Amino acid sequence: MAPPKRALIAVTSAHAPLYADGKETGLFITEALHPFNVFKQAGFDVDLVSETGSYQPDWLSEQKDWLNDEDRRVWEDHSSEFRSKLDHLYSPRDIDASKYGLFFASAGHASLIDYPDAKGLQSIALDMYAHGGIVSAVCHGGAIFPGIVDPQTHKSIIAGKKVTGFTTKGEEEEGVLDTIKGWNRPTIEAAAASAGATYIAPPGPWDAFAYTDGRIVTGANPASAHVTAKEAVKAFGGL
């Protein structure tokens, strides 16, 4: 039997200074909004969840270069379905994983902080994967993968798989690599290697790029959120 046509978008609940003047990273808005739109258009019911049931937006993701007029209209409208679900986020204890067939880890640099230890989100993703669902992530969302460990193999579900995610070169270009090291967190490339996966780089750090390996679907950066969600829907359709 095919998994339920319901998608669950994970959101980081962490926030920390990253940008000039102490401005903070958190949820990169379009990395949740664009997949939300794709899944809804494909006929999925969509819910949002974070490890603590709370979130904070990433400062950069609210700026004009990263949030176009249409996206901003949805983001600022608290009665829109997307913003309403963000304003009333689920936490893992609210979620019955058996009712979902697609897990999508949205991101923002803040996900490097909480996703590695997000046992609730990891458990949900593992349950969905074990029951034949799709597990996907974009940008820094891949930080969740090393902790999604198959109890039978004692390895991450991405062990032996090919995945993409935000490049270390991109971290260097943004000038935030030292900050990440200060958090005592690995880059996405390092996290993939530690989980036994092969990292596939996008053509350039900011180019839209997604990669599918079986039931694992990953994307490289904010520009990839839409295409990654489309690929996840395609993978779901192939189940």
TrEMBL record:
List the keywords (alphabetical): Glutamine amidotransferase, Lyase, Stress response
Say which species the protein is native to: Stachybotrys elegans
Which positions are tagged coiled coil?
Answer: none
Claim: Lyase is one of the keywords in the record? yes
Q: Which family does it belong to?
A: Belongs to the peptidase C56 family. HSP31-like subfamily.
Q: Which SUPFAM superfamilies match?
A: Class I glutamine amidotransferase-like (SSF52317)
Which InterPro entries does the entry mention?
A: Class_I_gatase-like, Prot/Nucl_acid_deglycase
This protein's name? D-lactate dehydratase
Q: Which GO terms describe its molecular function?
A: glyoxalase III activity
* GO annotation terms (biological process): methylglyoxal catabolic process to D-lactate via S-lactoyl-glutathione
State the EC number(s): 4.2.1.130
Q: What is this enzyme's catalytic activity, as reactions?
A: methylglyoxal + H2O = (R)-lactate + H(+)
What is the enzyme's main class? lyase
What are the GO cellular component annotations? cytoplasm
Q: What is the lineage of its organism?
A: Eukaryota, Fungi, Dikarya, Ascomycota, Pezizomycotina
